[in-house]
Amino acid sequence: MADIDVRDRGDDSARPMCYQCLQPYTAVDADRHTEPVNCDDCPRCKLMPACYTCRNMYCACEVHQG
Ligand SMILES: [Zn+2]
Ligand SMILES: [Zn+2]
Ligand SMILES: [Zn+2]
Fold first, then answer.
1. CA 4 to centroid of ligand 1, rounded, Å
2. Which domain of life is it from (predicted)?
3. Are 54 and 43 in contact (CB under 8 A)?
4. For a tag on the chain, would you pick the N or C end, based on fewer CB atoms within 10 A?
5. Which SS3 state, helix, strand or coil, does residue 21 take?
6. What is the pLDDT of residue 41?
């Protein structure tokens, strides 16, 4: 990506970046990126936020299978 000036793009720089899906998010979908989902089906994605995509091939979790 080019290192361009984004100051005029508005609120992009103000958005926190999600550590799970690496997408910037707004307050509107902050829950999806920060709220732990206790899905209980799989030890790998348990308590991960809803945006997390589990790569466990045996995962039976609907929330984290995208
Ligand atoms: Zn996220
Ligand atoms: Zn899960
Ligand atoms: Zn899983």
1. 24
2. Bacteria
3. no
4. N
5. coil
6. 76
